[in-house]
Amino acid sequence: MSIRKDQVLELFSSNPEKEFSFNELVEFFKVRTKPRKKLMPFIQSLTNTGFLYRLGKDRYISSQSSAAKAAKEAKGEKIENIEDKKIRESKDNKNNRQMGENTSKEQMLKQNQKQGHKKEKKQDYRRGARAGKSTNEQVIGRFIRNIEGFGFVSPLEEREDIYIDKHDVMWNGIMHGDMVKVLKFYEPSKRKYYGKFVEFVSRRESHAIGRVIQTGGVFSVELRKTLEIVMIQRGRLSRARKDDWVEVEIKKWPEGRAPAYGEIVKIVDADTYIVLKEFHLTEEFPRTVIEESERIKEPPQG
């Protein structure tokens, strides 16, 4: 026979003064197999919620019975009638629901904050953020790139260079020689300053020297010293081949993960070109020098 909780409650409600032993309940409901497993959970639930009262071992009675009330008084327990109990339970359920809703809202808020923090942390990581405090000071300087990808901003008005993380360099397309504005941060754990990119003041010189490299059918120029890559647009090789040293003109600056694009101006002798550029010399003599040389006459032969 299948037993329901409301059947047990109905039995005690219709016999409010009658005491039932567990065996009597088993016999009444004709539970033939595993009686404690099938019946006892309902009895314990009704006892815990206050509808039944346990007089002794395996003896139960309605909590509204005189025997139950007398036992409660003897123990100093509070006596409630059915209506008061229903009202109290209704309030308790309402409070529990409100507490559950508040808890759920708090949990959702904490979860959203946690997710937002993770997202912000991820975005900051992509932009090269570190654990530091902003000084609210913006500094302008020239960017000096390391071959590993990170670099330093050499301020115009300060002696100490400001470190720039490689992720900040990559995601903002900063190149060696760019004049940039950065927001200055202080990192207490390392007692050092670092910067976060704000904007470009001016881009580096568009002409540079590098070596032609080839990956499959794609050509690019690896710039000297910094190893920055400038992609070469199709048809702009100017007869240059792999491993040639060339002068390249940057036509499109890098942005995010998109590399710089340019075209090859001419093939150069690397050593000569480097000397000319480092000492700011030109490959051709100025017109005044040429004119002066033409006025010089060869000495007479004796």
Q: How would you describe this structure to a colleague?
A:
The protein has 302 residues and is an alpha+beta fold. The chain folds into 3 domains: 5-79, Winged helix-like DNA-binding domain superfamily/Winged helix DNA-binding domain (Arc Repressor Mutant, subunit A); 133-202, Beta Barrel (OB fold (Dihydrolipoamide Acetyltransferase, E2P)); 207-287, Nucleic acid-binding proteins (OB fold (Dihydrolipoamide Acetyltransferase, E2P)), CATH 2.40.50.140. The protein is 37% helix and 29% strand. The chain contains 8 helices and 13 strands. The strands form 3 sheets. Strands 6-5-4-7-8 form a 5-stranded antiparallel sheet. It has a 5-stranded mixed beta barrel with strand order 9-10-11-13-12. Strands 1-3-2 form a 3-stranded antiparallel sheet. Strand 4 and strand 5 form a beta hairpin.
Side by side, the strands of the main sheet go 6-5-4-7-8
Q: Could you tell me how far the N terminus lies from the C terminus, measured between alpha carbons in angstroms?
A: 142 Å
* Averaged pLDDT: 79
pLDDT < 50 runs, ≥5 residues: 120-129
Describe the secondary structure blueprint for this structure.
Layout: H1 5-14, E1 20-21, H2 22-29, H3 35-48, E2 52-56, E3 59-62, H4 66-75, H5 82-126, E4 133-145, E5 151-155, E6 162-164, H6 166-172, E7 179-187, E8 192-202, E9 207-215, E10 218-223, E11 229-232, E12 245-252, E13 260-267, H7 270-278, H8 287-295
Parallel strand pairs: 11-13
Antiparallel strand pairs: 1-3, 2-3, 4-5, 4-7, 5-6, 7-8, 9-10, 9-12, 10-11, 12-13
